[in-house]
Amino acid sequence: MNKRHFGHIEIPLKRVHIELTNVCDFNCLFCPKSLMKRPPGFMDFDLAERIINELAENGICEKITFHVMGEPTLHPRFFDILSHALDRGVKVGLTTNGAGLGGEVGKRLLEYNLHQIDISLQTPDARSFTLRKSKTLTFDAYLRGILRFFHSYRTRWPETIFKFRFLNTRFRKKDMEEKAGPLKVISSTEELRATFHYWAGHIYDILGVEQETREKAMRRIDTLVSYKWNVVEIYPGLFFETYVLEDWGNSFSDKKIRNAWGGYCFGMRDHFSVLYNGDVTLCCIDFNGRTAVGNLANSSLKEVLSADELGTIMRGFRKFQLVHPHCGRCLGSKSFIPWLFKPVLSVAALRVLKPFFYKRTSLYR
User: Fold this and answer.
1) What are the distances in angstroms from CA 338 to CA 14, 77, 258?
2) Of 13, 16, 126, 157, which sits most exposed with the smallest number of CB within 10 A?
3) Measured between alpha carbons, how far is 201 from 47 in angstroms, rounded to an integer?
4) What pLDDT shows up at residue 365?
5) pLDDT tens, 104-120?
6) Helix or strand or coil: residue 43?
Protein backbone atom coordinates (compact mmCIF):
# COMPACT_ATOMS: atom_id res chain seq x y z
CA MET A 1 0.00 0.00 0.00
CA ASN A 2 1.36 3.41 -1.02
CA LYS A 3 2.46 5.60 1.87
CA ARG A 4 1.68 9.31 2.16
CA HIS A 5 1.83 11.92 4.90
CA PHE A 6 -0.91 13.26 7.13
CA GLY A 7 0.61 15.98 9.24
CA HIS A 8 3.89 14.60 10.55
CA ILE A 9 3.03 10.91 10.29
CA GLU A 10 3.25 8.51 7.40
CA ILE A 11 -0.04 6.78 6.63
CA PRO A 12 -1.74 4.42 6.53
CA LEU A 13 -0.78 3.15 9.96
CA LYS A 14 -1.59 -0.44 10.81
CA ARG A 15 -4.17 0.66 13.36
CA VAL A 16 -5.46 3.44 15.58
CA HIS A 17 -6.56 2.58 19.10
CA ILE A 18 -9.75 4.25 20.33
CA GLU A 19 -10.36 4.00 24.06
CA LEU A 20 -14.12 4.12 24.57
CA THR A 21 -13.70 3.89 28.33
CA ASN A 22 -11.03 3.25 30.95
CA VAL A 23 -13.59 1.45 33.15
CA CYS A 24 -13.13 -2.32 33.48
CA ASP A 25 -15.06 -5.09 35.22
CA PHE A 26 -11.80 -6.89 36.11
CA ASN A 27 -9.09 -5.70 38.50
CA CYS A 28 -6.16 -7.68 37.06
CA LEU A 29 -3.02 -7.59 39.20
CA PHE A 30 -0.81 -7.42 36.09
CA CYS A 31 -2.64 -4.36 34.74
CA PRO A 32 -1.72 -0.74 35.66
CA LYS A 33 -5.34 0.06 36.47
CA SER A 34 -4.36 0.52 40.12
CA LEU A 35 -1.73 3.11 39.10
CA MET A 36 -3.94 5.07 36.72
CA LYS A 37 -4.35 8.71 37.70
CA ARG A 38 -7.02 9.47 35.11
CA PRO A 39 -10.59 9.51 36.44
CA PRO A 40 -12.98 6.86 35.17
CA GLY A 41 -15.04 7.95 32.20
CA PHE A 42 -16.60 7.20 28.83
CA MET A 43 -15.96 8.79 25.44
CA ASP A 44 -18.70 11.13 24.32
CA PHE A 45 -20.64 9.59 21.42
CA ASP A 46 -20.28 12.68 19.23
CA LEU A 47 -16.52 12.67 19.77
CA ALA A 48 -16.27 8.97 18.90
CA GLU A 49 -18.33 9.57 15.77
CA ARG A 50 -16.16 12.50 14.69
CA ILE A 51 -12.90 10.59 15.28
CA ILE A 52 -14.12 7.65 13.22
CA ASN A 53 -15.24 9.99 10.43
CA GLU A 54 -11.85 11.68 10.19
CA LEU A 55 -9.98 8.38 10.26
CA ALA A 56 -12.21 6.98 7.51
CA GLU A 57 -12.20 10.07 5.29
CA ASN A 58 -8.41 10.36 5.28
CA GLY A 59 -7.45 6.67 5.17
CA ILE A 60 -5.26 7.13 8.23
CA CYS A 61 -5.16 3.48 9.28
CA GLU A 62 -5.80 -0.01 7.97
CA LYS A 63 -8.15 -0.66 10.89
CA ILE A 64 -9.39 0.91 14.09
CA THR A 65 -9.22 -1.07 17.31
CA PHE A 66 -11.38 -0.39 20.36
CA HIS A 67 -8.69 -0.85 22.97
CA VAL A 68 -6.32 0.93 25.35
CA MET A 69 -7.47 0.71 28.96
CA GLY A 70 -10.87 -0.49 30.14
CA GLU A 71 -13.41 -2.86 28.60
CA PRO A 72 -14.91 -1.21 25.50
CA THR A 73 -18.16 -3.20 25.60
CA LEU A 74 -19.05 -1.45 28.88
CA HIS A 75 -19.60 1.83 27.03
CA PRO A 76 -23.35 2.58 27.21
CA ARG A 77 -23.41 3.31 23.46
CA PHE A 78 -20.87 0.73 22.38
CA PHE A 79 -23.09 -0.83 19.73
CA ASP A 80 -24.07 2.57 18.31
CA ILE A 81 -20.40 3.45 17.93
CA LEU A 82 -19.68 0.03 16.43
CA SER A 83 -22.50 0.46 13.93
CA HIS A 84 -21.23 3.89 12.92
CA ALA A 85 -17.71 2.56 12.29
CA LEU A 86 -19.00 -0.27 10.14
CA ASP A 87 -21.30 2.09 8.25
CA ARG A 88 -18.24 4.21 7.39
CA GLY A 89 -16.61 1.16 5.84
CA VAL A 90 -13.58 0.96 8.13
CA LYS A 91 -12.15 -2.33 9.32
CA VAL A 92 -12.92 -2.74 13.01
CA GLY A 93 -11.02 -4.68 15.64
CA LEU A 94 -12.31 -5.31 19.14
CA THR A 95 -10.10 -6.19 22.09
CA THR A 96 -12.17 -7.56 24.97
CA ASN A 97 -11.43 -9.31 28.24
CA GLY A 98 -14.20 -11.76 27.32
CA ALA A 99 -16.17 -11.37 30.53
CA GLY A 100 -19.34 -10.30 28.73
CA LEU A 101 -19.18 -12.70 25.80
CA GLY A 102 -21.29 -15.31 27.54
CA GLY A 103 -24.14 -12.86 28.11
CA GLU A 104 -26.11 -10.17 26.34
CA VAL A 105 -23.00 -8.48 24.90
CA GLY A 106 -22.00 -11.69 23.16
CA LYS A 107 -25.50 -12.21 21.77
CA ARG A 108 -25.62 -8.69 20.33
CA LEU A 109 -22.11 -8.95 18.86
CA LEU A 110 -23.35 -11.78 16.64
CA GLU A 111 -25.07 -9.13 14.51
CA TYR A 112 -21.79 -7.36 13.67
CA ASN A 113 -19.26 -8.52 11.09
CA LEU A 114 -15.94 -7.37 12.59
CA HIS A 115 -12.56 -7.62 10.93
CA GLN A 116 -10.86 -8.96 14.06
CA ILE A 117 -11.72 -9.95 17.62
CA ASP A 118 -8.94 -10.24 20.20
CA ILE A 119 -9.93 -12.03 23.39
CA SER A 120 -7.51 -11.23 26.21
CA LEU A 121 -7.72 -14.54 28.04
CA GLN A 122 -4.40 -13.82 29.76
CA THR A 123 -5.16 -16.27 32.58
CA PRO A 124 -6.05 -19.59 30.90
CA ASP A 125 -6.86 -21.76 33.93
CA ALA A 126 -8.74 -21.59 37.23
CA ARG A 127 -5.60 -21.01 39.30
CA SER A 128 -4.32 -18.03 37.31
CA PHE A 129 -7.84 -16.64 36.81
CA THR A 130 -7.76 -15.51 40.44
CA LEU A 131 -5.32 -12.78 39.29
CA ARG A 132 -8.23 -11.12 37.46
CA LYS A 133 -9.95 -10.31 40.77
CA SER A 134 -13.41 -10.86 39.32
CA LYS A 135 -16.14 -10.16 41.85
CA THR A 136 -18.81 -12.48 40.44
CA LEU A 137 -17.53 -14.43 37.43
CA THR A 138 -16.06 -17.91 37.95
CA PHE A 139 -13.47 -19.39 35.64
CA ASP A 140 -15.82 -22.15 34.49
CA ALA A 141 -18.48 -19.62 33.51
CA TYR A 142 -15.79 -17.48 31.85
CA LEU A 143 -14.53 -20.44 29.82
CA ARG A 144 -18.00 -21.60 28.78
CA GLY A 145 -19.08 -18.10 27.77
CA ILE A 146 -16.04 -17.48 25.58
CA LEU A 147 -16.19 -20.86 23.84
CA ARG A 148 -19.94 -20.63 23.27
CA PHE A 149 -19.55 -17.15 21.80
CA PHE A 150 -16.64 -18.24 19.61
CA HIS A 151 -18.65 -21.13 18.19
CA SER A 152 -21.67 -18.97 17.40
CA TYR A 153 -19.68 -16.09 15.95
CA ARG A 154 -17.34 -18.22 13.88
CA THR A 155 -20.32 -20.08 12.43
CA ARG A 156 -21.94 -16.82 11.34
CA TRP A 157 -18.85 -14.81 10.34
CA PRO A 158 -16.14 -17.32 9.30
CA GLU A 159 -13.87 -14.64 7.78
CA THR A 160 -13.37 -12.69 11.02
CA ILE A 161 -9.88 -13.05 12.46
CA PHE A 162 -9.81 -14.32 16.04
CA LYS A 163 -6.85 -13.93 18.36
CA PHE A 164 -6.68 -15.46 21.84
CA ARG A 165 -4.08 -13.67 23.96
CA PHE A 166 -2.24 -15.30 26.86
CA LEU A 167 0.06 -13.79 29.49
CA ASN A 168 3.60 -15.15 29.77
CA THR A 169 5.39 -14.54 33.10
CA ARG A 170 8.63 -16.33 32.24
CA PHE A 171 10.46 -13.15 33.26
CA ARG A 172 8.95 -12.00 36.53
CA LYS A 173 8.92 -8.30 37.41
CA LYS A 174 10.02 -7.65 40.99
CA ASP A 175 8.68 -4.10 41.09
CA MET A 176 5.24 -5.29 40.00
CA GLU A 177 5.22 -8.16 42.47
CA GLU A 178 6.19 -5.85 45.32
CA LYS A 179 2.96 -3.93 44.66
CA ALA A 180 0.60 -6.62 43.37
CA GLY A 181 1.90 -9.89 44.82
CA PRO A 182 3.12 -13.01 43.00
CA LEU A 183 2.28 -13.07 39.28
CA LYS A 184 2.51 -16.50 37.72
CA VAL A 185 0.58 -17.54 34.63
CA ILE A 186 2.62 -19.25 31.92
CA SER A 187 6.17 -19.36 33.23
CA SER A 188 7.88 -22.20 31.35
CA THR A 189 8.05 -23.64 27.86
CA GLU A 190 6.36 -26.83 29.04
CA GLU A 191 3.48 -24.84 30.54
CA LEU A 192 3.14 -22.76 27.38
CA ARG A 193 2.85 -25.80 25.15
CA ALA A 194 0.47 -27.58 27.50
CA THR A 195 -1.77 -24.49 27.69
CA PHE A 196 -1.90 -24.13 23.92
CA HIS A 197 -2.62 -27.85 23.52
CA TYR A 198 -5.51 -27.57 25.98
CA TRP A 199 -7.11 -24.52 24.39
CA ALA A 200 -6.49 -25.72 20.84
CA GLY A 201 -8.21 -28.98 21.73
CA HIS A 202 -11.33 -27.10 22.84
CA ILE A 203 -11.31 -25.00 19.67
CA TYR A 204 -10.82 -27.99 17.39
CA ASP A 205 -13.67 -29.87 19.07
CA ILE A 206 -15.94 -26.87 18.48
CA LEU A 207 -14.94 -26.55 14.83
CA GLY A 208 -14.86 -30.29 14.13
CA VAL A 209 -11.30 -30.09 12.81
CA GLU A 210 -9.89 -33.23 11.21
CA GLN A 211 -7.10 -35.12 12.97
CA GLU A 212 -4.40 -34.36 10.41
CA THR A 213 -4.87 -30.60 10.79
CA ARG A 214 -4.83 -30.93 14.58
CA GLU A 215 -1.59 -32.86 14.57
CA LYS A 216 0.10 -30.39 12.23
CA ALA A 217 -0.83 -27.46 14.47
CA MET A 218 0.24 -29.32 17.61
CA ARG A 219 3.66 -29.89 16.05
CA ARG A 220 3.97 -26.13 15.50
CA ILE A 221 2.94 -25.50 19.08
CA ASP A 222 5.64 -27.88 20.27
CA THR A 223 8.31 -25.65 18.70
CA LEU A 224 7.33 -22.61 20.80
CA VAL A 225 9.39 -21.35 23.73
CA SER A 226 8.25 -19.17 26.62
CA TYR A 227 10.91 -16.49 26.74
CA LYS A 228 9.58 -14.44 23.82
CA TRP A 229 6.53 -13.10 22.05
CA ASN A 230 4.75 -15.89 20.18
CA VAL A 231 2.04 -15.91 17.55
CA VAL A 232 0.88 -19.19 16.05
CA GLU A 233 -1.95 -19.74 13.58
CA ILE A 234 -3.69 -22.88 14.80
CA TYR A 235 -6.38 -22.72 12.10
CA PRO A 236 -6.99 -20.33 9.19
CA GLY A 237 -7.76 -16.93 10.68
CA LEU A 238 -7.40 -18.20 14.25
CA PHE A 239 -4.33 -17.26 16.29
CA PHE A 240 -2.89 -17.85 19.74
CA GLU A 241 -0.55 -15.16 21.03
CA THR A 242 1.58 -14.83 24.14
CA TYR A 243 2.64 -11.51 25.62
CA VAL A 244 5.64 -11.45 27.92
CA LEU A 245 4.78 -9.74 31.23
CA GLU A 246 5.86 -6.10 31.10
CA ASP A 247 5.90 -3.35 33.69
CA TRP A 248 4.25 -0.78 31.44
CA GLY A 249 7.32 1.35 30.84
CA ASN A 250 8.74 1.08 34.36
CA SER A 251 5.46 2.40 35.75
CA PHE A 252 5.47 -0.01 38.69
CA SER A 253 8.95 1.01 39.82
CA ASP A 254 9.59 3.48 42.63
CA LYS A 255 13.33 3.24 42.03
CA LYS A 256 15.40 5.76 40.10
CA ILE A 257 15.20 5.07 36.35
CA ARG A 258 17.99 6.00 33.97
CA ASN A 259 16.26 7.51 30.94
CA ALA A 260 17.21 5.70 27.75
CA TRP A 261 19.95 7.36 25.73
CA GLY A 262 18.21 6.33 22.51
CA GLY A 263 15.96 3.68 21.06
CA TYR A 264 13.12 2.86 18.71
CA CYS A 265 9.39 2.84 19.22
CA PHE A 266 6.33 2.03 17.11
CA GLY A 267 4.48 5.06 18.45
CA MET A 268 3.04 7.11 15.55
CA ARG A 269 4.70 4.70 13.11
CA ASP A 270 2.65 1.54 13.57
CA HIS A 271 -0.20 3.06 15.61
CA PHE A 272 -1.31 5.78 17.99
CA SER A 273 -4.08 6.03 20.56
CA VAL A 274 -7.01 8.30 21.35
CA LEU A 275 -8.07 8.22 25.00
CA TYR A 276 -11.70 8.54 26.04
CA ASN A 277 -11.34 12.29 26.78
CA GLY A 278 -9.92 12.95 23.29
CA ASP A 279 -6.21 13.01 24.17
CA VAL A 280 -4.05 11.74 21.31
CA THR A 281 -1.11 9.75 22.70
CA LEU A 282 1.94 8.30 21.02
CA CYS A 283 1.22 4.66 21.81
CA CYS A 284 -1.15 2.20 23.46
CA ILE A 285 1.15 1.53 26.44
CA ASP A 286 0.73 5.07 27.74
CA PHE A 287 -2.16 4.28 30.08
CA ASN A 288 -2.01 7.64 31.88
CA GLY A 289 -1.89 9.89 28.82
CA ARG A 290 1.53 11.30 29.60
CA THR A 291 2.52 11.50 25.93
CA ALA A 292 -0.59 13.42 24.86
CA VAL A 293 0.27 15.68 21.91
CA GLY A 294 -3.17 17.24 21.55
CA ASN A 295 -6.85 16.79 22.26
CA LEU A 296 -9.62 16.13 19.76
CA ALA A 297 -12.37 17.72 21.83
CA ASN A 298 -11.38 21.10 20.41
CA SER A 299 -9.14 20.23 17.46
CA SER A 300 -9.21 18.09 14.36
CA LEU A 301 -6.92 15.11 14.01
CA LYS A 302 -5.15 16.91 11.17
CA GLU A 303 -4.37 19.83 13.46
CA VAL A 304 -3.05 17.59 16.25
CA LEU A 305 -0.89 15.49 13.93
CA SER A 306 0.51 18.63 12.29
CA ALA A 307 1.59 20.25 15.57
CA ASP A 308 5.21 21.37 15.95
CA GLU A 309 5.68 19.30 19.12
CA LEU A 310 4.84 16.08 17.29
CA GLY A 311 7.12 17.07 14.40
CA THR A 312 10.03 17.38 16.82
CA ILE A 313 9.21 14.00 18.38
CA MET A 314 9.00 12.29 14.98
CA ARG A 315 12.29 13.77 13.79
CA GLY A 316 13.86 12.40 16.94
CA PHE A 317 12.42 8.92 16.35
CA ARG A 318 13.93 8.87 12.84
CA LYS A 319 17.35 9.40 14.43
CA PHE A 320 16.63 6.85 17.22
CA GLN A 321 16.40 9.72 19.70
CA LEU A 322 13.68 9.85 22.35
CA VAL A 323 12.60 13.46 22.56
CA HIS A 324 9.63 13.02 24.87
CA PRO A 325 10.76 12.43 28.50
CA HIS A 326 8.15 9.73 29.07
CA CYS A 327 9.56 7.75 26.13
CA GLY A 328 12.98 7.95 27.76
CA ARG A 329 11.60 6.51 30.99
CA CYS A 330 9.56 3.85 29.19
CA LEU A 331 12.69 2.47 27.52
CA GLY A 332 14.91 3.30 30.47
CA SER A 333 16.56 0.96 32.97
CA LYS A 334 17.42 0.80 36.66
CA SER A 335 21.04 -0.26 36.19
CA PHE A 336 23.91 0.59 33.86
CA ILE A 337 24.29 -2.56 31.74
CA PRO A 338 20.62 -2.79 30.69
CA TRP A 339 20.64 0.99 30.15
CA LEU A 340 23.59 0.56 27.78
CA PHE A 341 22.13 -2.24 25.65
CA LYS A 342 18.34 -1.85 25.85
CA PRO A 343 18.14 0.92 23.20
CA VAL A 344 20.14 -1.21 20.78
CA LEU A 345 17.87 -4.18 21.40
CA SER A 346 14.77 -2.01 20.87
CA VAL A 347 16.08 -0.95 17.45
CA ALA A 348 16.91 -4.54 16.49
CA ALA A 349 13.61 -5.96 17.74
CA LEU A 350 11.21 -3.28 16.53
CA ARG A 351 12.94 -1.86 13.46
CA VAL A 352 14.17 -5.14 11.97
CA LEU A 353 12.67 -8.31 13.48
CA LYS A 354 9.06 -7.31 14.12
CA PRO A 355 8.41 -5.91 10.60
CA PHE A 356 9.94 -9.10 9.19
CA PHE A 357 7.57 -11.12 11.37
CA TYR A 358 4.62 -8.98 10.27
CA LYS A 359 5.30 -9.90 6.64
CA ARG A 360 5.42 -13.60 7.44
CA THR A 361 2.25 -13.70 9.56
CA SER A 362 -1.12 -13.34 7.87
CA LEU A 363 -2.53 -11.75 11.04
CA TYR A 364 -0.55 -8.61 10.29
CA ARG A 365 -0.96 -8.41 6.51
Assistant:
1) 30, 45, 10
2) 126
3) 43
4) 45
5) 999 999 999 999 999 99
6) coil
- All residues at 6 or more sequence positions from 82 whose CB lies less than 8 Å from its CB, including other chains: 66, 92, 94, 112
Least confident of 14-28, 57-71, 246-260, 290-304: 246-260
Label the pairing between strands 294-295 and 279-281.
antiparallel
Torsion of CA 258, 263, 265, 268, to 10 degrees: 100
Asked if residue 98 lies in contact with residue 120, where contact means CB atoms within 8 angstroms, the answer is: yes
CA distance 164 to 230: 12
Contact by Cβ (8 Å): 162, 117? yes
Terminal-residue alpha carbon distance, the chain: 11
11 residue type, one letter: I
- Give the strands of the sheet with 116-122, arranged side by side: 230-235, 238-244, 161-168, 116-122, 92-96, 64-66, 15-18, 271-274, 279-281, 294-295
**pLDDT tens-digit series, residues 273-317:** 999 999 999 999 999 999 999 999 999 999 999 999 999 999 998
Q: Please, which residues have CB within 8 angstroms of residue 18's CB and are 6 or more apart in sequence? A: 43, 48, 51, 52, 64, 65, 66, 67, 68, 273, 274
Residue 333 pLDDT > 90: no
β-bridge mates for residue 120, sequence order: 165
3-state secondary structure of 139: helix
